[in-house]
Amino acid sequence: MPAAAYYDGRTARRHEVQISVEGGALLVLGDGIQRREPLSAVRVSERLGQAPRLLSFSDGAHCEVRDHAALEAALAAAGHRQGLVERLQRSWRAAALAVLLCAGAAFIAYRWGIPLAAQLIAARLPPAVSRQLSDSTLQALDKIWLEPTKLDAQRRAALSRGFARLHPPAEGGASASIEFRSSPKLGPNAFALPDGRVVLLDQLVTLAANDDEIYGVLAHELGHVHYHHGMRMLLQGSAVALLLTAWVGDVSTLLATLPAGLLQAHYSRDFEAQADDYAAATLLANGIPPSRLADLLQRLVAQRDSGNKDRGKDKDGNKDGDGEMRSYLSSHPATSERILRLRQADRLLPPPQGLSPGR
Amino acid sequence: MDFDQTQPLVQEPEAVRFHGNGSEYFRIWIVNLLLSIVTLGIYSAWAKVRRLQYFYRNTELAGSTFEYHGQPLTILKGRVVGLLLLLVYRFGFQISFTVGVLSLLLLAALLPILLRNSLRFRLYNSSYRGLRFRFTGSAAGAYGVFLGGFFGSVFTLYLLAPLFHQLFKEYQHGNSWYGRTRFSFHATTSQFYGIYGRAFLMLLGLVIGLSVLAGFLFHGLLPHVAAGTKPDIRQLLRFMLPLMLVVYLPTVLLLSAYLGARLQSLIWTNTRLGEHRFDYRLSARQLLWIYFSNFLAIVLTLGFYSPWAAVRLARYHADHMTLLPASPLQGFIADQPQDVGAIGEEAASMFDIDISF
To answer: Which CATH code for domain A3-82?
Structure first.
């Protein structure tokens, strides 16, 4: 006979009552109350920890019960079964398993789920969206970072022609054009806009020892365009930020924004590797050794390291510094690995005609 | 001010108590979280109902608990609408300028009503001792408070923000009911300005003081500044992380603790339910400690401390709330039947919506 408080739903008056379950009916007795309701017409609230449970009647009245053991015994005797979730919510074993599964789900979503979803969406977005996005990105960059190119028209035309002549490694390669700019602030760099335009900075042209190196960089950027990396990065970044906000955002929005950048760095490394592979394949298809791109990468690293030494600072220099831009060096820790991979790709270059070892 | 300080309190104060505990809530939270993940977020509406029920039912006043009656499907519907609006807001201008402007107009037209309906939904689905709360704020009032408040604040460099905060609280509390008894709100605009003014001075002091401190701690960049040369962009960005930890984070924690404590105290000590009053005096220092330790524990546990954090915060808030009754609590009488009858309930679930996440 659990004790309970009864409220009739019309006044806030509290009635101290005793409840019991008899013959499939709930009995409420005491303090001037005498009620008998079939148990099937009573809504029994779920048990949530030690919080009082409510037994609600259809006319708005309800009982508030704190004696959990007695209530559960009475309900069990009447054949009332607890829900599955209700039972899981009380079990430490289920909680431990849920922690593991949540962590696993988070990892799977981060490693495969979000990238896959972003890939599917990016490939289906209408070209107008990436066009619009590219325009606004380039406008913003022009305002803060970029200056007009100082290369003469002849040089630009030659590079554009060479670039146009590069044939893609497979059917349906991305169509692309070069936007020439200069940027003393950013240094030697190139980056792809989502719609296929590649921004090439004068500083990179100056740094390159030959045009093949430049084509190597452009082919790498074409890889980003071909795989929709720009748009995918944007979508993945939004998704990661959204999920992190859902995870801890009610406690601190700062907590949600800080790790988002770190998590995205990983995505960026994957994309760099994929673009390198595309660049290697493109260069091979055009008879250019992929190590040309490696040469340029190496010179970039050397230049930056000496620059850092001049300022007497820093050994690792791997903080990704370029905000939303797809920078060439943003994946620096893996740069030596990238150089090695590109050099190894030289082996796939068809040997020059006439010198092939006969059989 | 027309505070009737001389009126004797014949009734004993009734303290609110919170009985939830972290380990208990953790098990509820994690199971529902997993189900939400597995169902790609759909189950989160059920999880929200459980969360609110856990916190409501563990909140006790004068021997009785509160109860939450919201239906998961209604909440789910609200979340879909909320998500759509968020997408419209986020990507409108990236599609085109016209779409962007149109989506802003749509938001301006819809949001006040949706927010009003959220308040209505939340209160209608809250009860104490079997009597529901209600919210009767008008649509016109919602446009004035939300739309007027937004533009009135933004276009005056937030000089009018305290005024609109006061107006919003007056709209929210002044249109709330428990059974047949109406709440009323008595805090004045100048009281809001007093708190926000002090918070602004604190903000200035904190930003200046902590920036100087950060300068001493991370002076690697100072020679560049002195020499007038441009430091490397990468170094500048590397500078951002410590700057956030030394300047931004303490500022946010301190200000939110101060504002949270002072504003909540002001609002509730100046809210009445009929003739009944509330005593609610939070300490900014204690709140700061809770915010800070919760923050730290959540970082260290990669988020798994959050159920304990939520329980700690709820307990602190509940345990500082006291009802000062002017007459016996039993005297409250519920609404006329037609107000909470089947038709009313049907209408509530058709048009009411909870877009809060």
So the answer is: 2.30.29
